[in-house]
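ok new one. same drill as before - structure tokens go in, u give me an amino acid for every spot. 370 of them this time. try not to just spam alanines like last time pls lmao
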């Protein structure tokens, strides 16, 4: 949660300031460690740390933070374009392997073990205190799992995913001549891990969610972006009518699908009865999943100003979809982790429109719904 604002000047001077530190070594600046600003981009580092960073190459150097070129030339245009295409293809392949991991439903599966490792390493009351403070620890856990050390068996999909990560990291080196402290090949799994850390606050201690949650988190990443905290759920009711094309609707549907699955899991593990899910439960869920956990969480969503009308609609959305007790084909398909994204988009759209209420509205696809 965001720290309370100091009540007066003395309180601010006592508790609202801290020494600036170098983002490379994470040590405060002092007389032996002077801060220097890069003119090109404005980022600040200790001079000794920056010189050590730039020693990676005599022919090209980049800012450690924003990767802008400080000296040297870009790769040959034709070669750079070819590498970039291979880089993007490798990234897509890696996302495909992540989706295939949904076939691993046993207790030793990679996604299950990743959940356990993240929830044990980052307790529910933990908060990231500075930018990327948790990244090295998360990447270390991912490497531990991809090397097979944290799994009971060496499954094919884990090995395929590990190979895709290695290929992406190698292409990053070829494209940029050096590699960040946070290699790009780990980014999709890193994003997945960060969302697991946030979502784990919804569940009782040591509870393993159903595989459908992995599907919903990965759908969020593919359709709406990697960070759950940047999902402005309450805006969905109005914004969906401002974006008539299917691409923009998919952004909203990815968020709504995750919200739907989280409500189903919240009901199963905390309430036990779907009929009991009400407005206060929705508010509580939104406050938990949108609370500031990571240092760089950017919150436009005011968890203290959640619309009751919106929450009432979300309750209807939950009750109509019946994920916990699916009786219709659409409900059964939404509860199945192997359902295609196209079907998910279709069913979420229909349930969300039907939960709007008794008045008639024009849909983004033409026609009207009541």
């Amino acid at each position: 949660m965001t720290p309370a604002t100091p009540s007066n000047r003395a309180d601010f001077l006592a508790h609202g300031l801290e020494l600036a530190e170098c983002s490379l070594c994470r040590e405060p600046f002092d007389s032996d460690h002077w801060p220097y600003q890069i003119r090109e981009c404005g980022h600040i580092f200790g001079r000794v740390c920056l010189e050590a960073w730039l020693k990676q190459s005599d022919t090209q150097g980049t800012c450690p933070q924003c990767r802008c070129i400080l000296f040297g030339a870009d790769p040959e245009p034709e070669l750079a374009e070819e590498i970039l295409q291979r880089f993007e293809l490798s990234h897509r392949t890696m996302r495909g392997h992540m989706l295939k991991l949904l076939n691993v439903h046993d207790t030793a599966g990679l996604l299950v073990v990743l959940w356990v490792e993240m929830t044990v390493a980052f307790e529910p009351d933990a908060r990231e205190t500075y930018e990327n403070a948790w990244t090295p620890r998360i990447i270390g856990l991912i490497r531990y799992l991809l090397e097979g050390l944290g799994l009971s068996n060496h499954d094919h999909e884990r090995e395929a995913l590990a190979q895709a990560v290695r290929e992406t990291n190698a292409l990053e080196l070829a494209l940029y001549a050096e590699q960040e402290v946070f290699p790009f090949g780990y980014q999709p799994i890193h994003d997945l891990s960060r969302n697991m850390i946030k979502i784990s606050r919804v569940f009782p201690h040591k509870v393993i969610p159903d595989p459908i949650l992995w599907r919903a988190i990965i759908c969020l990443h593919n359709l709406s972006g990697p960070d759950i905290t940047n999902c402005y759920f309450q805006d969905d009711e109005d914004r969906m009518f401002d974006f008539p094309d299917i691409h923009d609707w998919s952004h909203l549907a990815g968020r709504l699908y995750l919200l739907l699955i989280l409500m189903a899991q919240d009901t199963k593990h905390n309430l036990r009865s779907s009929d009991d899910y009400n407005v206060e439960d929705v508010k509580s869920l939104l406050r938990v999943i949108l609370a500031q956990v990571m240092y760089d969480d950017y919150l436009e969503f005011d968890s203290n100003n959640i619309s009751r009308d919106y929450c009432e609609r979300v309750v209807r959305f939950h009750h109509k979809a019946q994920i916990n007790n699916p009786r219709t084909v659409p409900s059964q398909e939404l509860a199945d982790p192997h359902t295609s994204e196209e079907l998910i988009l279709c069913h979420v759209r229909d349930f969300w429109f039907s939960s709007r209420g008794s008045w008639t509205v024009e849909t983004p696809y033409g026609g009207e719904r009541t």
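Residues 241-247, 358-370 have pLDDT under 50 and may be disordered. and btw The longest strand covers residues 35-37.
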